[in-house]
Design goal:
The chain is of the alpha/beta class and 241 residues long. It has helices at residues 48-56, 92-103, 109-118, 134-145, 164-179, 191-197, 215-221, 227-235; strands at residues 8-19, 22-33, 37-41, 63-68, 77-80, 152-155, 183-187, 200-205, 208-213. It contains eight helices and nine strands. The longest helix is centred in the last third of the chain and has 16 residues, at 164-179. Bound molecules: adenosine-5'-triphosphate (ATP). Residues 19, 22, 24, 42, 44-50 line the site of adenosine-5'-triphosphate.
């Protein structure tokens, strides 16, 4: 894409990261626009979480830079860790109210109920957080990380351990948030869902981005039948890496 015309809300330039002797990312660059879901895929330990945290500004790269063009948004990035947890003893609505008031004292119950509606938790607003299923806890986490409508959302493995129905709900919810003008980054091992729901795939392997583009583009570029076969060929050494 021509950078002068780019509407990129986020730009990573030559990002590298090493833990001790372990080089995880080497000169990784990408751009991202609002309104799109970016799925970071790759084998275990390939650096997806590391890259997500660098994109979110939670971890500094050793070299390179991440530019976020968030237009002075009060909250530039919403981050949801892999296992969100909430303090016992409060309901879903009370919990979300707590986070909204941290950002803006004036954000009222209308915002809370709308935000719970957006993630499909209206009926659960009076339930205690300790009694939520894993999937509902993730949905509450999505609502919490979205407070203030950050233009960038970074969500680490939102569907791990969830059943197919809840996995679908999470992907649809994140797709809806992207449609509202957010750049959504997520990591997942669920390649079928990526093929169906992601706008862009970022395949991380051997310290680099080994493939990127829409799911169809990535599959066609590798003359493969599915993302799973692209994954296999790249990770098992048959790809262009
Ligand atoms: N704080 C750290 N200190 C040392 N090594 C780390 C640290 N964080 C991650 N690593 C290592 O860096 C590599 C990349 O980890 P990362 O969690 O980014 O991978 P991932 O692709 O998200 O893995 P998974 O799919 O298993 O969640 C792994 O080998 C991991 O053990």
């Amino acid at each position: 894409m021509n950078k002068t015309e780019s509407a990129a809300v986020l730009e990573a330039n030559d990002v590298s990261k090493t833990y001790g002797e372990l080089e995880v990312l080497k000169d990784v660059s990408m751009e991202a626009e609002r309104g799109r879901v970016y799925a970071l895929i790759g084998p275990n330990g390939s650096g997806k979480t590391t890259f997500l945290k660098i994109l979110a500004g939670l971890l500094p790269p050793d070299s390179g830079e991440v530019l976020r063009r968030t237009g002075g948004a009060e909250r530039a990035v919403g981050y949801l860790p892999q296992q969100p947890s909430f303090r016992d003893g409060f309901t879903v609505a009370e919990t979300l109210r707590f986070y909204t008031r941290l950002l803006d004292e004036k954000m009222g119950d209308g915002y809370v109920s709308e935000a719970l509606g957006d993630v499909g938790l209206s009926d659960a607003s009076d339930r205690h957080v300790s009694g939520l299923s894993g999937g509902m806890t993730r949905l509450l986490g999505v609502a919490q990380s979205r407070v203030g409508n950050p233009p960038i959302m970074v969500v680490d493995e939102p569907t791990s351990g969830l059943d197919p129905e809840m996995t679908g709900r999470i992907f649809e919810t994140l797709g809806g948030i992207a449609d509202d003008g957010t750049a959504v980054f997520l990591t997942t091992h669920d390649l079928d869902r990526v093929a169906r729901h992601a706008d862009e795939v970022v395949l991380i392997h051997d310290r680099r981005i080994a493939g990127s583009g829409s799911p169809d583009e990535v599959v066609n570029e590798h003359e493969a039948e599915s993302l799973a076969s692209v994954f296999d060929s790249v990770v098992r050494g048959g790809g262009r890496g």
